[in-house]
Design a protein that fits this description.
This protein is mainly beta and 167 residues long. The protein has a domain of 108 residues: Beta Complex (Beta-clip-like), CATH 2.170.270. 8% of the residues lie in helices and 26% in strands. The strands form 3 sheets. Strands 1-2-10-7 form a 4-stranded mixed beta sheet, with no helix packed on it. Strand 1 and strand 2 form a beta hairpin. 37% of the residues are buried. The N terminus is likely disordered.
Length: 167
């Protein structure tokens, strides 16, 4: 869901989102394993960019947010689209989603591409991002959104040579 920074209703995994384990001192652990920054994207709005090289198959990090029901995620998505045009939801099971609207995790800005360099996997109710190939420092992190609420009505702006043209 690129133009609107929406997130797909990812393939379900029947698990609820556990809390991120605490670091020493009771602080939540930082889910980012590789440095990522948010900056303007040629694809759309803001994007997530690698600050250092990332090896293929490496876990880059996670997106956290408020766990909500799928029905609540759909309600919030409709309201957010009307209000701001930006939707940041990730389905993590058939019943639960993560509302990343207020998350500080930079990967929530990963844009769609028909030739992605990152894959989103739901693991035990968490949204984790992995490198599909070696990624250079400065490269935008992109993923294939999969099924979106746009149902083919939104033009894709990824610019990939074999772009599908629509989301």
């Amino acid at each position: 869901m690129p133009t609107l920074h929406t997130r797909p209703l990812a393939p379900p995994i029947a698990a609820e989102a556990p809390a991120v384990p605490a670091a020493p001192g009771g602080r939540p652990r930082d889910p980012q394993r590789h440095p990522v920054e948010v900056r303007p994207s040629a694809i759309d709005g803001l994007g997530a960019f690698a600050l250092a090289p990332i090896p293929a198959r490496a876990k880059i990090g996670e997106v956290r947010g408020e766990p909500v029901s799928i029905a609540e995620a759909e309600r919030r998505a409709r309201a957010a689209e009307r209000a701001t045009g930006r939707i940041m939801m990730i389905a993590v099971s058939q019943r639960r989603a993560i509302d990343a609207t207020h998350s500080q995790d930079p990967l929530r800005y990963a844009n769609h591409s028909c030739a992605p360099n990152v894959v989103l996997r739901t693991e035990q109710g968490r949204a984790a991002f992995y490198a599909l190939r070696d990624i250079d420092a400065g490269e935008e992190l992109t993923l294939r959104y999969g099924e979106t609420h746009h149902a083919g009505r939104l033009a894709c702006r990824c610019g990939a040579p074999r772009c599908a043209g629509r989301l």
